[in-house]
Automatic annotation (TrEMBL):
Family: Belongs to the UPF0114 family.
HAMAP family named among the record's database cross-references: UPF0114 (MF_00143)
Membrane topology field: Multi-pass membrane protein
One of the Pfam families matching this protein, by short name: UPF0114
InterPro entries xrefs: UPF0114, UPF0114_bac
Record protein name field: UPF0114 protein ABDJ85_12535
Keyword Transmembrane: yes
Length: 191
């Protein structure tokens, strides 16, 4: 039997629903990422079949610079576009973790137990697990960006390359610190 909450605690507890518009906004942002993915994919397919206009759009979107506009898809352009598509997928995965995990952790239970499509990680998600998963996802996204930069290094200043590497290492160290702190909090007797 649950005891009814007093008015102030009830109001404070109900305030968690103020996050609902934020999660709905992230769902809309996910829709924009889906549109971006399909637009880039269509341009890639068109460029593979010789469409020069689609190739020009791709070259501009990836920041590829050459003395002359390529007449066809080359390995570098293809790799940069595919890495861009992977980046969109990874950011989309991050959005799903934030939307589903955040809603489940901070707003309300989704009651997905026993549902065949329940994500495996959702059964044991809490704020701490969510932080580690998000940090790991950010490292993956940062890795893709860094790889895109290195593949296209001729088009970047040395200072940009250095700062992107430093920022990636900072993300990596931050994620390791978050994971280590989480481990200390979960298993304090082992340390």
């Amino acid at each position: 039997m649950t005891v009814p909450l007093r008015p102030l605690p009830r109001l404070i507890f109900a305030s968690r629903w103020l996050q609902l518009p934020l999660y709905l906004g992230l769902i809309l942002a996910q829709g924009v990422y889906v549109w971006q993915f399909w637009t880039e994919l269509v341009h890639l397919i068109e460029a593979a079949f010789g469409n020069q206009h689609a190739l020009e759009i791709l070259v501009k979107s990836i920041g590829y610079k050459a003395t002359d506009m390529p007449t066809g898809l080359n390995e570098t352009i293809l790799m940069l576009v595919v890495l861009g598509l992977i980046d969109v997928v990874m950011i989309s995965n991050l959005l799903i973790m934030v939307i589903v995990g955040g809603y489940e952790t901070f707003v309300s239970r989704m009651e997905l137990e026993g549902h065949p499509d329940q994500p495996e990680w959702l059964s044991h998600v809490n704020a701490s697990v969510l932080k580690v998963k998000l940090a790991t996802a950010i490292i993956g996204i940062s890795s893709i960006h860094l790889l895109k930069t290195f593949i296209n290094a001729d088009n970047y200043k040395e200072q940009t390359l250095l700062w992107q590497t430093v920022i990636h290492v900072a993300f990596l160290l931050s994620a390791m610190a978050i994971a280590y702190t989480d481990r200390l909090l979960v298993h304090p007797e082992k340390h």
